[in-house]
Specification:
Blueprint (H helix, E strand, L loop, with lengths): L9 H9 L13 H10 L4 E7 L4 E7 L12 H5 L6 E3 L12 H4 L5 E8 L5 E9 L8 H26 L2 H5 L3 E6 L4 E4 L1 H7 L3 H4 L13 H13 L8 E6 L5 E13 L2 E10 L7 H9 L9 H13 L4 E9 L1 H8 L1 H19 L14 E6 L2 E6 L4 H16 L2 E3 L2 E3 L2 E9 L6 H18 L4 E3 L2 H22 L3 E10 L5 E12 L3 E3 L5 H6 L3 H20 L6 E5 L2 H5 L3 H11 L7 E5 L1 H6 L1 H14 L2 E7 L5 H7 L4 E4 L1 H5 L5 H16 L3 E4 L5 H9 L4 E2 L10 H9 L10
Helix pairs in contact: 2-5, 12-13, 13-14, 18-20, 20-22
Bound molecules: ligand C2E and calcium ion (CA) (2 copies).
Length: 727
């Protein structure tokens, strides 16, 4: 056996390696996707990025590598990194340098292909390699090209790593163009290589927002990538192709490679800009990047479509399962993007393992089994048969596999998932239609509940068409001002005085007349319009309250919140702005939320509610008592009032239990210093009962049904005030 030589400047080499500060235990998870891609491309059970230290080697990333001896003297990569070209050993048992190497005699390696990874200083750090315990005869020129492309990707990732751990000193010296920016794309720094590439003086370049460095047509793309990464919905892709803009206005084709990290609270991005004009990448590299997701190493949506088209074109029975995660966005928001990336990689591995239980190595594809990442937290699996029962079994196995807690960044994360199934040729004969249908089934599964799976049914398509038409109608409704608010009065039970009103949405539909929320609210909330409509309701209700308060200074208005209004995290700012624009004091507004909203995104919502409370807006729990977690929520959520659900109030007369629940809720609220308002009061008897038991306020048909502003004024405000207010 021949031990690997030392490099001529070994001390410099080790210093260069140390600059990356790679923890041998944790490795560099950002390389995992590329390593997984390498194993799959070369059909090898194992692949790794191996760093060569002084006496030992360590893995920055690996897949399918079991326990092995880390001594540098027996390392294949320690040889490979000294070569200019790729080192390919088709059968190590026949190679005089390696035949008696313990890794060969121990059955770990027979085939090896590795390529050196170098620091910008030129020092070899280690190698990217693919390994098989069986020999591989013949390593084609195309395969060499692939390995070189992957090594370039690894080198970029490593350069970004150096940037993260050692800003700004190393970025400065780096020969590749690097720009760093904040979460809004505002530039923070650039290195001389970037200044040269873009033709700006460095001081000026460091003041130019990132999107100004690309052609106008690509600006929305860059902005949306930053926003989506910031929202945590989509981890950044690699290799974004753009037209970049020089100082002199000329454009050049470039590719942006992204990395992000946190500085304190703030999110920072590092972007490597590759000038594609200078060294056009090999066609294979582009192809490889275009067809794979670099985070997980899985094929992407385009590859999936292509694969499906191939199968469907040759009439092979095909089952397609699409999977999405429940709770991923929340985990990503609370634990950070690195943890989110890690979760997605683990999900990819579990998914592949579940779909290919026959192999111990997740990446070695069984013929015809194909797992892809569709984007965000959505994945897909193609199976080589069309048996609905068997596919249902696999879908349930996927849900079960993903339900086991994951460990990411030291946190245990429990995710849910849903699956939708479609089968060719029964459900579709075109790849896109099959995917569409599986996604419709997925929607159905999602609507049914966490952990559900659903098989496509033809009526789902008809419903989808109807939904789309209805959504278009809703868009028109908002744009043309067909939504309107009705107001239902709220009274103080002790004095009998009007205290305010709840605003309730109605739709003045041209053909169908006045529609109540039950007819359109579920569709509205599921659509992209929910947030905008919520803003409209808030604004219209505040405008109305401001008018009515001129004559009735204590009048308050209650507005129902929807989940979508709390998703973005800017509700407090929206509310403050709306109040200010109508000159309304915060105590004139009460926001109602249901516990479903509170539970769905617990911490995210909680923070916003605290902000709203600090602003001075009142908060109440709507439909209180109907959920499971009500009592527990009261301990944590900063609400002022609970609204006892109308179900209990209406059934009070006939049911001892409901009476006990209502009086119990009133007592509990009093103990917690919360106000109580009873909904659905339909009779004098109910009103008297509630007053006797200390309920402060009531709302219901007995006091007045919801009315348009004009009739509301006539009925409730005109008499109470000398001045007749007009809506
Ligand atoms: P909610 O917040 O519980 O609103 C009270 C509902 O009970 C209203 O139905 C009201 O008309 C009805 N109601 C009032 N008094 C009585 C009574 O004495 N007996 C009976 N049986 N019902 C009574 P509506 O207006 O159809 O609203 C239904 C739901 O739609 C609301 O329930 C609320 O969850 C939602 N909603 C209404 N407007 C909005 C809105 O602007 N935004 C959001 N996000 N949700 C809204
Ligand atoms: Ca309500
Ligand atoms: Ca209610």
């Amino acid at each position: 056996m021949r031990c690997p030589d030392r490099s001529p400047d070994e001390a410099g080499r080790l210093r260069a390696l140390a600059e990356y500060r790679i923890d041998p235990e944790r490795g560099l998870p950002s390389l995992d996707g590329i390593v997984a891609m390498a194993a799959r491309l070369f059909d090898c059970p194992a692949a790794a990025v191996n760093m060569v230290g002084d006496a030992q080697v360590f893995l920055a990333s690996s897949i399918g590598i079991g326990d092995f001896d880390h001594a540098r003297d027996i390392s294949f990569c320690a040889h490979a990194m000294l070569q200019d070209d790729i080192m390919v050993i088709e059968d190590a048992a026949l190679d005089p340098r390696f035949h008696d190497n313990p890794l060969v005699t121990g059955g770990v390696i027979r085939f090896y292909a590795g390529i050196a990874l170098r620091a910008p200083s030129g020092h070899a750090l280690g190698a990217l390699c693919v390994i098989d315990p069986h020999p591989h005869p013949g390593f084609s020129a195309q395969e060499r090209g692939h390995l070189q492309s992957l090594a370039r990707l690894v080198a970029d990732k490593m350069e970004l790593r150096r940037l993260e751990v050692a800003l700004p000193t190393h970025a400065h010296a780096s020969p590749v163009a690097i720009v760093t920016c904040d979460a809004d794309g505002g530039a923070l720094s650039c290195n001389p290589a970037a200044a040269t590439l873009f033709g700006w003086p460095p001081e000026t370049l460091a003041t130019i927002p990132l999107d100004r460095l690309v052609a106008p047509a690509d600006r929305p793309l860059v902005r949306s990538l930053l926003h989506r990464a910031h929202d945590g919905t989509v981890p950044l892709l690699d290799g974004t192709p753009v037209q970049a803009l020089r100082h002199d206005g000329t454009a050049f084709p470039a590719e942006l490679h992204w990395s992000h990290w946190h500085e304190g609270e703030a999110l920072r991005f590092g972007v490597i800009v590759h000038d594609l004009g200078a060294s056009p990448p090999a066609a294979e590299t582009l192809d490889l990047l275009a067809r794979h997701d670099s985070l997980t190493g899985l094929p992407n949506r385009d590859s999936l479509i292509e694969h499906l088209a191939g199968r469907l074109g040759s009439d092979q029975p095909t089952g397609l399962i699409v999977v999405d995660l429940a709770g991923f966005a929340e985990a990503n928001n609370t634990l950070g993007h690195a943890a989110g990336d890690d979760v997605l990689r683990q999900v990819a591995t579990r998914l592949a393992e579940t779909c290919r239980p026959e192999t111990s190595q997740p990446v070695t594809s069984l013929p015809d089994t194909f797992v892809a990442r569709l984007g965000g937290d959505a994945f897909a699996a193609v199976l080589p048969h069309g048996d609905p029962l068997a596919l249902g079994g696999i879908a349930r196995a996927i849900v079960a596999a993903l339900a086991a807690p994951l460990l990411a960044s030291g946190h245990e994360i429990a995710l849910g998932s849903h699956c939708g199934i479609a089968i060719a040729p029964d459900h579709a004969t075109r790849a896109e239609d099959l995917l569409d249908n599986a996604e419709l089934a997925l929607m159905q599964a999602r609507a049914t509940g966490r952990g559900e799976t659903a098989l496509f049914l033809p009526q789902m398509r008809a419903e989808a068409v109807a939904r789309r038409l209805f959504e278009a109608e809703l868009h028109h409704a908002l744009r043309l001002g067909q939504f309107t608010l009705f107001y239902q009065p709220q009274f103080a039970l002790d004095s009998g005085a009007l205290t305010g009103a709840e605003a309730l949405i109605r739709w003045n539909h041209l053909q169908r007349g006045l529609l109540e929320p039950a007819a359109f609210l579920p569709a509205l909330e599921a659509s992209s319009l929910a947030e905008a409509t919520g803003c409209w309701v808030l604004d219209a209700a505040c405008r109305q309250a401001a008018i009515w308060r001129r004559a009735h200074p204590d009048f308050t208005v209650s507005v129902n919140l929807s989940a979508s209004q709390l998703r973005r995290g800017n509700l407090c700012a929206v509310v403050a702005g709306t109040l200010a624009s109508h000159g309304l004091p915060p105590q004139a507004l009460e926001l109602e939320l249901t516990e479903n909203i509170a539970l769905a995104q617990h911490d995210h919502v909680l923070a916003q509610l605290h902000d709203l409370r600090a602003l001075g807006v009142r908060l109440s729990f709507d439909d209180f008592g109907t959920g499971f977690a009500s009592l527990n929520l009261l301990r944590h959520f900063p609400v002022h009032a609970i609204k006892i659900d109308r179900g209990f109030v209406q059934d009070m007369q006939g049911s001892d239990r409901d009476r006990a629940i209502v009086t119990g809720l009133i007592r509990m609220a009093r103990d917690l210093s919360l106000e109580v308002i009873a909904e659905g009061v339909e009779s004098a008897t109910a009103a008297q009962f509630l007053r006797r038991h200390g309920c402060a306020k009531a709302q219901g048909y007995y006091f007045g049904e919801p009315r348009a502003p004009g009739p509301f004024v006539e009925r409730h405000l005109a008499l109470a005030a000398p001045l007749r207010t007009r809506a």
